Amino acid sequence: MGNGSTSGPLGLEAKDVRFTIGGVTALAGVSVQVAPGRCVALVGESGAGKTTLLRCFNRMIVPTSGAVMIGGDPVSGQQPEHLRRRVGYVPQHGGLLPHWTVRKNASMVPDLNESPNAFEEGRQALAAVGLTEEIFADRFPHELSGGQRQRVALARAIAARPGVLLMDEPFGALDAISRAELQAVCSELQRELRITTLLVTHDLVEADYLADEIVVMRAGLVEQRGTVDEMLDQPATPYVKSLLDRALAGARRLGDS
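The structure assignment produced for this chain is given below.
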């Protein structure tokens, strides 16, 4: 891929972040750090606060209190549209613009940044996720499979070479084969680009495969942070042990099938 728009990966930090809406507390004082170039996965059941925390980093959600920083700079002082051009984002269902071609979707951020090489940066990003321009560039999202749409969404997120990548259940709606293929693509991109990544997933096995560290969340709080091996050795709470036991049971069932 071509020259990036950032000088390198940027660290992420949330300090005592709280978010309450409609009398419901979604985040109850969460502190999380992601070192530059590392990948951290937020894991937990629905309602744990994973997506809420992730969206604080691109100002899709503004916390009730606490500090959220990218590269040491508070996001609260940045214009959301400018911030989002510097932060790659892959939502669960891709979020592609249906009336735009694959080429235009992939080139969107470089184009917004007024890059003179926007289409070339989009082409390189598509190639990086395994989509050749000759076959896919002029197609529209409805002409693609679910896995192909997510590849385009990933290409769009990395085309401008951001210092940060936010991924919110990016493979959750895919079949098992497409999911495994996209996980492998993401793993390779992480090794190649070293983009600081925050990944939201329900799947502890996926988190173990893609992330350097895992943060287990429950009811708006962090239960434990570490690798799977560290958590297996010393689970901090009964909930973490239960989560690990269920993940291992599921992995064994897959291995036996």
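Interim note for the steering committee: Strands lie at 12-21, 24-34, 39-43, 65-70, 73-74, 87-90, 164-168, 196-201, 213-218, 221-226. The chain has one domain: 12-256.
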